[in-house]
Design a protein that fits this description.
The chain is α+β, with helices and mostly antiparallel strands and 281 residues long. The chain has 8 helices and 9 strands.
């Protein structure tokens, strides 16, 4: 029996990236994060960044397929887009939520999701994809497409020692404490999901990003065998409730960040006391 949710093709009210007062925008360090409006120029900035990362830099897409240098696919019209901008209002990161539609979800077409045991009604699911971070934010020699190598162990594809004691010493010296751009974008995704009543996420991503997300409390579960899909990719799923409960116990500082500026009526019951507590601090 499938679970019900509150999403009924709701009208969306996105904002211009330059709007400084929209409740879904947050400033973090020198960056701003939020949902992109229907403004075509704003979306072109997103598609151009994706072209630079996915086609030119890493070759996952053929540059000649995009003569206008904008990486666009069939799911973009069925998606909600988010962007990270710097102090100059330049887009330096992006991600999208693919909504349920007759086109389905890319992960379903690329892999058999046999382990998606708590699968809800389809309208309660979104696939989070096309995460891209500008190479200006990935300057270290070890940085890959998402720049997460500084946060994960060598056995996970990163640079940190697998031995816990050695790893702690290295982490003390590491100026990179958190993947700011990725966390900011996922916070925007979280709040939009809470607004629309979307309870579950799908991703199909490289192993390094899978491990990095889990390290910072986004506890995705592998739901199918790894597949070759622009390289080796892991199909995974997570419910927001499982993420919230894990963060409440293990990553309260990340949970506080996710909840910042979230309307009180969207805060789930199991987090209300936590929200009240941090609101008093």
């Amino acid at each position: 029996m499938t679970k019900q949710c509150k999403y009924f093709n709701s009208i969306l009210y996105p904002f211009q990236l330059t709007d400084p007062v929209n409740k879904l925008m947050i400033e973090y360090y020198n960056f701003r994060f939020g949902e992109v409006s229907d403004d075509e120029e704003a979306k072109k900035q997103i598609y151009r960044l994706r072209y630079e990362v996915y086609a030119l830099e890493f070759g996952f897409e053929n540059p000649y397929d995009f003569p206008d240098k904008l990486e666009i696919d069939q799911y973009d019209k069925r998606s909600i887009h988010f962007a990270a901008t710097n102090e100059f209002d330049e887009v330096i990161g992006t991600v999208r939520m693919i909504m349920n539609s007759e086109a389905g979800f890319p992960a379903e077409k690329a892999a058999e999701l046999t382990g998606f045991d708590d699968r809800p009604e389809r309208s309660c699911i979104t696939e989070v994809s096309r995460l891209a971070v500008s190479k200006l934010l990935r300057r270290r020699p070890e940085d890959g497409i998402h720049g997460v190598e500084s946060y994960i162990t060598k056995s996970q594809g990163g640079i940190l020692e697998d031995d816990e004691e050695k790893r702690k010493e290295v982490e003390k010296e590491n100026r990179r404490k958190r993947p700011v751009i990725i966390l900011g974008l996922y916070r925007a995704v979280y709040q939009k999901c809470r607004e629309l009543g979307i309870t579950h996420m799908l991703i199909i991503t490289e192993e390094k990003l899978f491990h990095a997300l889990n390290k910072f409390g986004f506890v995705f579960k592998q739901v199918g065998d790894p597949v070759e899909y622009h390289g080796r990719r892991i199909p995974s799923a997570a419910s927001w409730e499982s993420i919230e409960r894990y963060m409440l116990k293990n990553k309260p500082e990340i949970l506080e960040f996710l909840l910042y500026k979230l309307d009180d009526n969207l805060v789930p019951d199991h987090l209300k006391s936590f929200k009240e507590k941090i609101g008093k601090n």
